[in-house]
Structure formats: C-alpha cells, structure tokens
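Q: Can someone sanity-check these two? First one:
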Amino acid sequence: MKVEEKYSLLPLLLIYCSALLHAGFGVEGLSYDYTASVECLEKPHRPQYGGGMILNPELNDGLKGWSVFGDAKIEERVLRGNNFIVVHSRSLRNDSFSQKLYMNKDKLYTFSAWIQVSNGSAPVAAVFRTNGGVKYAGAVIPEAGCWSMLKGGLTVEASGPAHLYFESNDTSVEIWADSISLQPFTKEEWNTHQHQSVEKIRKTKVKLRAVDGGGNPVAGAEIAFRLAKRSFPFGAVISEEILHNTAFQKWFTDRFSVATFENEMKWYSNENSPGVENYAVSDAMLQFCKQNGISVRGHNILWDDPNFQPGWVKTLSPADLRSAVDRRINSVVGRYKGQVIAWDVVNENLHFSFFEDKLSADASGDAFQKTRRIDSTTELFMNDFNTIEESGDAKSSPAMYLRKLGEIQAFLGTGAGPLGIGLEGHFGSAPNLPYVRSAIDTLAAKNLPIWVTEVDVKDMPDQAKHFEEILAEVHAHPGVKGIVTWGTWNPKGCYRMCLTDANFKNLATGDVLDKFLGMTKVGVTDAYGVFEAGSLFHGDYEVTVTHPTLTKSSTINTFKVAPSSPHASHQTTLLLVQGST
C-alpha cells in the first residue's frame, strides 16, 4: 500500500528539486586549459597561456631567450610561414636548446610544446634541471613532417634557477620545437580548478520547496538527507576474506559501488594446474557483489609480467602456450561475460612482454580480439602503472600508452568495440599533481573512458595527505569515469596501504576516504517553504523530513540528483505525516 493511500487525508509535504547545472568555470585567477592534442598536425597550435613565463615562445624574435645546452648547434628556421627552433649535430641525448628560468617551490607548473623530429620518429622528453635535481615534465613521440603536442607538468623542491631543455636517446634526429609554454599556478588556483571542475561535471544545484496538500508553503520543516549512492563509480579491492567476515562486508558495502578482486580472478588462481580449473572463490565473491549491488571489474585475463604466470605456463612451448592462452580467455570470459563491467585484458603490457616474447608482437591485440569475440559489449581495458605516477618512466608515458593502445585498435580494426584506459595509480612518492593532470589531459584526448584502477600510496610520511591530494585531482578531471583504490584490509597485510584496521576502525587513509565519499546535510525551510540545498553530488539520496506540528516523521526512499540541461528541473515527492489514530 502506498503511503499516499494510507494517509490521504493527512497533511503532506511535496519537495520539488530544481536542478541547475553550473555553466563555465568563472575562476578567480587564471583558468586551467584541459585541452591536449594527440594528432600530428601540419602546423602547431598557438602556445597555451601565451607561453606563460617562456620568453619568445613562438620564436618570432629569432633565438632571443634561447641558448645551447650541451654540445650541439641551434638555429631558427621557417617552414610554411612558421618560425621554430632546431637543435642539430647532436652527440648526447641531452644536447638541446635551453632557456633559463626561475622556479618557485610554492607553484605548480603546467608545460606544453609542439615538437617535431627531422626524420622517422623518436621519443622526446621535456626536462628541467633544477636545484633539486633533474625533473622530467613529460614526453611525446613526434614524427618527421608534422607537429605533435607534448604536455606535462612539474613542481620543484626548492626555489631557484632552472634550465629547460629537451632530450632524446636517438642522437641522429634533429629536435624541432615551437609554441613552448610554462605556466605557474598557485596552490589556491590549482585547488580552485579542481573545485570548479567538480561543480561542473559531478554536481548539480538543488533547491527544495515544501508545500502542504493545498499547495501552501510549509515553513520550518527540517529536511535531513544523505548521499546513499554516488553516480560516479567508486570502488576498492577485495579478497576472499570478505566472504568470511561480516564486519568487513558491512564496512565495504557502506562505502563502495565497485569491486576488483585482488587475486581471485587471475589465471594463477583459476588454473593453478594445467587443465584443472577452479572458480569457486571468484564465483562466491561475484555472488556477494551481486547481492549487495556492487559492480565488478574483471581483473585480469592475462598478465604480461613473467613473474605472475601460473608456474606450469612458464615452460610451455609457443604452440602449447597459445593453446593455453586461448583456453584461458575462453574460460574466464565465457564464464563471466555480462557479469563484469570491464575486462583488464593484458595487464601491464607496457612494462612487460611475456606473451609478446613467447608468441608474437601482436599477442596483446590477439588477446583483445579473442576477448571481444566472446564478449561484444563490455569495455576492454589496458591497465598499467606509472603513466600518471612517474613522469620519468619512459616505458609508460601517455605517448607510449597511446601508441600501444593504437596498435591494439589497429589489430582489432572496425570491430574494436568499447575500449578503456586503465591507470593503476600506485604512488611511491608525493604526487606530481601537474603531471598527473596533464597526463590525463593527453589520454583524454582519445575520447575513451579513463579509470584510475588501483590507487594507493606507499607507507611514508604524509601518506594520508598525499592520498587525499590524488583523489581530489583524479576525481576532478573531466576525463576520469571511475576510481578504484588498492587498499582496504587484509589480515596478511595490504600491498601498500590499508584503509582500516582489523577492528574496522578507519586508519587516517580511511578517514580521508570517508570525507571524500560522504555528504550529509540538514536544513530548515524558510517562510516560503524553500531550502537551498546547494550543490549536490549526482546520485541517490535518502531523506528524512520532520516538522514541529507533527508527531511522526517519515523517510521516503530516495530522490535522485542527475546531470541536466541548465533550465531543467527534477522533482520528488516526500510525505510528512502524523501518526495514524
């Protein structure tokens, strides 16, 4: 029976939720430019921020501001009416052109440049030599004949002079550069960028208006609501332990909407002996997640690290390995097709190459293709580390990530289906937030969903603070569509970071998480029956309404806050009822 039917003659309260999306950024200070290009263009774009603090960023004043770095020669050239700087006659990887700058330890710097090489294709990195050592700002894989955008960022440990230069291990190529930019931001400006991005993409302004059955405003009604479920997917890793520990179950289900199994869906867990498959644990964990409305990421089908293969796999001949791989893909994907929201198909194939070395250079593409034939609708992910964590890891730069992803897409052809970008996010030091943001900018230019899949921070001073900084940065980025942490609780110890102790009392990192996830508000309607709830995260809310004249309050399920057009409205109906007589 509906509450309306039972209490049809009693006063009621209608709550109308008017939802208006924020438009634009309107920042105090300089806005951040999230744009990046992954195309190789005939002409470079203009420098971001007009070049920022770079002198002569478009080389319109000859070589003013630029000097030789190392033992090479530099010159200005003009092509198709475009001026640019060139370093040639290089003998060392860091032979380059350079500009001297002064950098402040309290600033966050975003960097960009358009790069070309004289022949072929070669990775090129932007480097800053500072008082605190050498800092890599970012890298790109430019080609001859067109311009590629390098986007990056950095902070410095100590204020002082710095030299910007470029490097490439291929000393046979000339490095060309144009539209070079280095823009500093204060911490306050950086945080404002995050806040305003969240307001625009993750929240909606909500106004609640209370009226009685006659349409008259109800003043003084107390409205208490909490965010019961975010629309933005936020998850964490779980292990078999969750099946046997009700306290762990409650702690987890109260917080998360997505789960990744730590080891239980990996090949070495499902087929420890050749031909003997065991999915009992992963089946039980999947059932637990289903019962609690938790989505599951399929992690992982294959792992390219030779150290994490089933023992019997390492000694197989190429022909036997190919058969075993085919059986593995058919088995796990066929079993869980339609029950997971994503597949990490070949884990960490930027840093490792077990299957490529044993089978063929197309081993990753072949695994994606075979997975896609079995499961045509689930998003298929690459998943690797250091793409956002370490700017100096040449194996997993955004450019290298996109090159590998492009090879897989080319192998799949027109039947690629939905693909995704997985960024693990295992931070071993304080996060370089400008690099994190710029790396995601570059990846987001592919218009594919980006998930940060295994976020944690090494046990070190300020671990919780750094965890909070990382969550704030990635959650605010428009390109990020989901976040999973790689630390909850495990009696054997967490990989790098736990969120709770054995009694399921939050550690400092868990407090950070709860602060990030939670939203509760209490308000009282004004004389017009209106309560300005402000900006609310998209998701489902549980609501309790009380009023001084009533003897009983009623909690009426949820109302939903969702993205909308600027002038659209949402509404839900809540009942404020007296106890029946």
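And here is the second, same format, sequence then tokens:
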Amino acid sequence: MFVGHLPKICTNNSTKLCFPSNSSNDQLEVSLPLYLETLYLFGNLLNGSISTWLYSLPSLKLLDLSMNQFTGSINEFHSCSLETLYLDQNRLHGHIPRSLFQQVNLGVLDLSSNSLSGVVEFDQFSKLNKSSCRIREFPNSLLFLDVSNNQLQGLVPIPPPSLIIFSMSTNQLTGNIPSQICNASALEVLDLSNNRLNGSLPRCLGNFSENLSVLDLRNNRLQGMIPIFAKVKSLSILNFNDNQLEGPLPQSLLTCKKLEVLDVGNNKINGSFPNWLESLPELQVLILRSNRFYGPVGDPTARLPFQKLRIMDLSNNDFTGHLPRKYFESLSAMMESHAGEFGYMEVEHSYYYTKSVMVDMKGVYTKLEKIPKIFVFIDLSRNQFLGEIPNLIGMLKSLHGLNFSHNELSGSIPPSLRNLSNLEWLDLSSNQLVGVIPEQLADLTSLEFLKLSHNKLVGPIPNGKQFNTFENDSYIGNSGLCGFPLSRTCNNEQEQPPSPTNVQQAEDDGFDWKFVWMGYISGLVIGLSIGYIFLSSGKFDHWFSQWAVRRMWYKLNARLRGRRN
C-alpha cells in the first residue's frame, strides 16, 4: 500500500520526475512516462493534490486514482486520449473541468464521493472549440457516468443517448426531471435519488428503455401520479420512496416480470391492497409503508403468491380485517433456512448499484445500505388489523423481525413463535392481546428487542435467558403482569434480579453479550446480528471488498468498450 504524495516534476528538468531518496538531500530522478497508457493506483493512502504531470500525458487512456485521500481540485487535461477515469472516493473539490467533455473516446467517468460543486451540463460540448482535439463532430461515447455523493447543483442534465449507467444521487439538484431524459434509450441504471427534485414524473419514464434495470428516484419532492410502465420489461428495482406521489399504484407494473424490489413507501398513494403484485415471480422486497392504502389484505388470486418475498412492509396505512393468513401460508422464502447464504441481495449491476431500503428495526427507522441475504422481516404495524395472530406464523422460521404493533389484534400470543429461532426483534405492543406470555418464548436466544407493552397480558413474565435482558418498557401498560423486571412480584414473593448462574446459562446456550454491546456501541441498528457486521468489518476486509468491486468495474469497462466497438 502506497502512502504520501505522488512524485512531482523536478524543478531543474521538466522531463524528469523527482522521487525522494533515503538521503534527505538527494532525489531520485526518473524520466517522465510520456507513453504511459494505463495507471492503477486505487485503494491506497495517497494524499495531497494530483500531480500536474498526470494531466499532460499524451497517451493516457485509463487513470484510476480512486479510494485515496487526494485533495484540491481536478485540473484541465491537456490531451484528449482518456477512455476511462476513476477519481471517486477522494476529497476533491471545485468544479468538474471542462476538458473532460472534450475527451473523444471517454466511455467511463466516475467522480463520485467527493466534494465537487457546480453544474453538470452535457451541452458543454457546444461551448468548446472543436479544433482543440480535432473533433469533426461532437463525441457521443460516454457510457458510464457516476457523479453521486457530491455537492453538484442545478437542473438534471440531459444525458447523451449512448449513456448506459447514469447516477447523480445525493447531490443538490433541483427542478423537474426533463422529459428529454427519455431520449437516452440505452439507459440500464438511472439513479437521481437524494436530491431536491420536484414536479411530476415524465409520462415517458415507464416506456423509454427496454433495458432499464434500476430506476431510483427516492428522497426527492416529486408529485403527481406514477406513470404507466409498458416497455421496461427488464426493470428489477423501482424505488420511489419518500416523495409526494399520489393516486393508485399502476397495475401496468405487472409487465415488469423481473421486478425484485418495489419500494413506494412514504408517499400519498391510495387504493386497496394491490393483490395483483402477487403475480410478480421475482419480487423479494415489497414496501408500501406510510401511504393511504386501505381495506383488507390477503385474498390471493394466484395459487402460490409471494413465494420469493423476504421483506414485507405494509405499515402505517389503513388496512383492515384479519391478518393475511393465506399469504403467510405461501411465503416460501421466509420458511427456508438462509443460514449459509452470506453476502447481500444483488442485481445485475451489483458492481455499481446495491439494493438499499429504509426499515423500522427494533424501534429505529434505519437505512440498510445493503440488504443481507439472510435478512427477512414482516412489518404490518400501525394499521387496523383485528382478530388473532395465526399459529402458522411459527412456520416463517427465517424471520429476523416481526412487527404487528398498533393494531386491534386480540387473543393470546401463539406459543408457535418459539420456532422463530432467528428472530431478533418482536413488537406486539398496543393491541388487545390477552392471556400469559408463553414460557416457550424464552427459547428465542437471538431475541434482542421485545415490546409487549399496552396490551391486556397477565401472569408471570418468563424468567431466564433473553428475558433477563429486557427492561420495564417492554411490558408497561399490562397491569396484570408480574415478575422481573417489574416491581410487582408474583405470589407475594420478593422478586430478584437474574442471578449470575442464569446469565452464564444464557451464554452457554449460544448468546454472547459482547455482540449486543458491539451493536449498541457501533450504533448500527442496535446490533443487527453480528453475522452482518462480520461481512463488512476490518480494514483488510474493506480493502479486499473494494478491490473485488473494482475488478467488476474493469469488467464493465471492457464490456462497454466492446459495445462501443
């Protein structure tokens, strides 16, 4: 791993590079690599400004300085030979140099995760001098553009028709999404999320590219209705979360047979439950939370609905009737064991775009930057569901989270919940549940968060194992409960805190306290399962994963060059 500054041009000879030697007074002089075509220096600890000689290499085609600590601005390039440029994940600032738009053969440009500002305009080509690079006509070679996670402003630029991957997410863009964006018929990924865009969605958005795989417009200020989707048959991710969209969910989404993630949470979408979604064979993530849906859920028309569904979030709507028992019976992916499935849910462009969602985990609304393959949960909270919790919930053995809180559920807590051996959080609060807390729930050794408050539960709280870790707020509002940790004792006996023997027993049963504390200290969703943390912890693991991603990006680059040729 390299540390420090790039070598600079020697003061006494402009054709030489000077490297510091072991002697403090001497320097090693090396000829300037004028014919250098490829330079990989990604994933090091290089800092300072990017040396000026790099901007003057006449034959440079591929330059990768990503994942370093470079500062300063990006200077103008003096040649027009660049085909691939990676400067992402540094500390660069200032405007994007105009010379980048003069690169005749530039196919891949990644400037993401810096502090760049200003406005991106593809029509800057028209403002440049063609003769500077002997351009007879304006180039149309750009295939990959990622300038996400910067401070860019202005309107959404109209991309060239050649563009395949286009990301300007997490900037400060304003205004409408221009309808001319639909002229980029080659687009496979369009990510304009986390900006300040407003206005309605272009009606052509659901028809302009048969190759479109990812459409991510979440966290903006978009209004109006969702357009009809007729030609985007390759769509696998549709994320409109956190906007102000209204009207019904268009049934034309049924044409998107490859759809894996549908996230329209936190909008004003209305209508009855879209049970036609059950016919989408690849759907894994369904998020309808915080909209204006109403009526009963669970009258399936398909023989085996939602078989691949892993995340089901219908919370904070106006759904009524009984819990969707018939859907629970067919959630095959939630019944299977995913214990050996490491890694994250991926799409075709996983080397560039990762699936991420906002979920309510253990009482905290949290963004999962990546969705672990083993992550399975159901959230039907804050609706008007009534009736009993069906015993067959115990069949969904892969569940990590279950939230039925703030409904009108009655009856007792089913003992079959003991079968949910992977369950990390359970929230049944603010219902009308009666009876005792089943002793069998003490067998849930993965349970880190429990909320049974504001029901009509009675009797002793189970003792030992996980139940020795929960505090009063897990049980408040149940006047008939007694036992630790409540001050009310059972059978007029003085209640004692858990003994060291019980704590040791919990550890012997496979529960390790350090995992819980690691979760609290890291602030990562109060400890999603230490298995998730293992997937992304450690400096070496981080570097290695970034190296693997970079290898995939180079494969993409080769693919793009092949397509252009």
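A (reply): Looked at the second one. The CA atoms of residues 344 and 403 lie 23 Å apart. The chain has a mean pLDDT of 82.
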